[in-house]
Design a protein that fits this description.
Length: 216
C-alpha cells in the first residue's frame, strides 16, 4: 500500500453523515441479518413511493452521469449511483472515488491505485481486518463470483462483476451498522453480525469479498 493521505476526520465524518441523512430521508428502513436469516423490523419509503423519493434517486443517478433516470426506473439498480452521490456531495474528489453506475468500476480503480501515495481507500481482507465507520464493505451478487489471490481481489477479477457496497456508519461490540442504496428498494441501514475477532461473516445473501478501508 502507498503512504496514507493526510488525516481528514472532518471529511470522513461528512461521508458518514451524508449517508445517515439519506437514510433518515427514506424513513429509516432497517434490515437485520442474523446468520442466513434476514428481517426488516422497520420499513421505510421505497424508491417509487412518491415524487420526492423518486426525485431523490434522480439526484443519485445525476452524480453517476445518468440524469434521465429516477426512482420509477425500478429495474435499474442504483446502489452505485447512491454511493457516488454520497462521495460527491461530501467533497471526495473523483480521482479518489470514481462516479459510476457500477460498483466494480470504482472498486477496480481503487485497487489498481492502492500502491500510490495518498489514496483514501485501500483494499483489506475480510479475514484479518475489522471494518470501521467510513469504510466500504462489498459483496458479490448472483450470478457473479469474485476470484481472489490469497484473499485479495484483483482489479482484473472485478471486471463486469455484479456487486454491492455499503458504507459502514457504526460499530458496537459484535454488531456492525452499514448504509446502502437500493437495499430492499430503499436507502436502508443494515445490522450485521461480526465474529469473535470483529470480522465480517460472509453469508449466502451477502458474500463479502473485500473491505475498502477509509484511511482519512
Amino acid at each position: 500500500m502507498g503512504a496514507p493521505p493526510a488525516p481528514n476526520p472532518g471529511l470522513k465524518r461528512r461521508i458518514v453523515e451524508r449517508a445517515e441523512g439519506e437514510w433518515e430521508y427514506f424513513g429509516r428502513q432497517t434490515v437485520v441479518h442474523r446468520g442466513e436469516e434476514e428481517s426488516i423490523p422497520h420499513v421505510g419509503y421505497w424508491e417509487d413511493e412518491d415524487a420526492l423519493r423518486s426525485g431523490r434517486v434522480n439526484s443519485y443517478w445525476r452524480a453517476a452521469g445518468k440524469p434521465g433516470l429516477d426512482g420509477m426506473d425500478c429495474q435499474r439498480p442504483w446502489s452505485a449511483a447512491f454511493m457516488s452521490w454520497v462521495m460527491q456531495s461530501s467533497g471526495v474528489p473523483s480521482i479518489q472515488f470514481a462516479r459510476t453506475t457500477a460498483h466494480w468500476i470504482y472498486l477496480a480503480r481503487m485497487i489498481d491505485a492502492a500502491p500510490l501515495p495518498g489514496r483514501y481507500f485501500v483494499p483489506r481482507r475480510i479475514v484479518d481486518y475489522s471494518p470501521e465507520p467510513g469504510d466500504l464493505i462489498c459483496a458479490s451478487r448472483k450470478p457473479s463470483r469474485v476470484f481472489s489471490i490469497h484473499g485479495y481481489a484483483t482489479a482484473r477479477s472485478l471486471y463486469g462483476v455484479s456487486a454491492h457496497c455499503d458504507l459502514v456508519v457504526g460499530k458496537e461490540g459484535r454488531t456492525l451498522e452499514s448504509i446502502g442504496g437500493n437495499v430492499r428498494n430503499s436507502v436502508s441501514k443494515s445490522r450485521l453480525e461480526l465474529d469473535a475477532q470483529g470480522h465480517l461473516k460472509p453469508t449466502k445473501r451477502r458474500p463479502w469479498f473485500v473491505i475498502m478501508q477509509n484511511r482519512l
